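name: query_chain
kind: protein
chains: 1
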Amino acid sequence: MSLSANRPRRAAERSPGVRLLFALLIAAALAAPLMLVYALVWDRNHEADQARSSIVDGWGGRQVMTGPYLAIPYQHDITRTAVENGQSVTRTERGWDELVLWPRTLRMDTRLDPQTRRRAIYSATVYQAVAEGEARFDLPADLAGVDPGSLVFSRAELRMGLSDPGGFFGDPPRMTLDGHPAVLQPGHGPRATGSAGVFAPVDASALKARAVTVSFDERFRGNTALALVPRAADTQWRVRSAWPDPSFKGRFLPAERSVDDKGFDAQYRVGNLAIGRSLIGDDQTELAIDADTGPDHPTLAPGVSAPPTAEVDLLQPIDVYSQVDRATKYGFLFIGFTFLLLLMFDLVGGTRVAPAEYLLVGAALVLFFVMLLAFAEVTGFLAAYLIASTAIVALVTAYSAAILGSLRRAGFVAALLTALYASLYLLLNLEAYALLVGAVMLFVALAGVMWATRKVDWSGRAATAA
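structure:
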């Protein structure tokens, strides 16, 4: 084959279109390691969750409180129909049931003492809680069809729910009925706390004539979050803590709250009209919540809905895994911008950049996210970001100086990467405007490339013709 026959093929290999195709193929190939980095972030986050679970094991779960309330037994007629010898037979017999009476008013003051427990590089937030309060009960005129004469007040039970009773510590919980101490026993909690809690047999005969008052004092441990299921006609809950980063969740938010670097103080005011339930009912209308998962992952009984709660989460100020995860999603942006600059040097600057050199630069950019994750687990996100970005900018700049044959051109690469890492950090901290900032960056980059390559012969026809 003659040299003249080989000339078109060599020209095509050097054509801008072929060089662009090589850069795009290499960028696409780097999607695989980027996805592996994304999977690594997920795996490390999963391991961190398991480590946190082991740290708080035995301390107490995400606690859900409810009550106190009275369960009063009563007898009533139960009609049953059965088929015997081919005939329908109806029988009426006496049976027992419970009338659940929720308080008219509930005043509760809860103090949370938060702690951060560590194991190796992992940490978890736990707390000790002291809940004190008073509830007032009276007997409504309407008992939802129950005959007042059938109520056995002398065999009533005073109940209070806590989703993980294993969190009780120190002095046992105390409850009094009109000043008389109640002897508490485990169990018989409401379904809203997975039937976990404490109860005490009491004589509530005074309810026939007047209102009665229940006082309580309990100390328990938990982790991450505390929720209250309000059921009184008027619930007033005050929760205080030295934790400076609370998150108020649930259906009900505080009526008043103050948050500063010394902690928070929140006051809730919830009425049963907002809940949509009366003070009289039965325990089967409540929700069963898994004590291990708490209010965020309820186990619903058939035909019932999740109970409305007021919840306070003790947030970790910075979740490094979520930040690294978000940063990794911008990996293609880094690779694309850097490859564009190298391509401009290749097409416009006259410096040939080989496919292997694109690949090595792309590998360095992917390595940034691995280093970011590794350092963030130890030093925190900001320090890790500075360490990883500085290392990668220095590495790619030094390599660019060698392959581009110019310190000045390597300086452009360093400036671009520095601007990219600064922009990424800005995007990570401006969640609401991340899309807007990213779109503007892409527009500016595309406009710059279009301007720089406006005279480029992409097909290489001019070189072939020559």
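note: Residues 62-314 form one domain.
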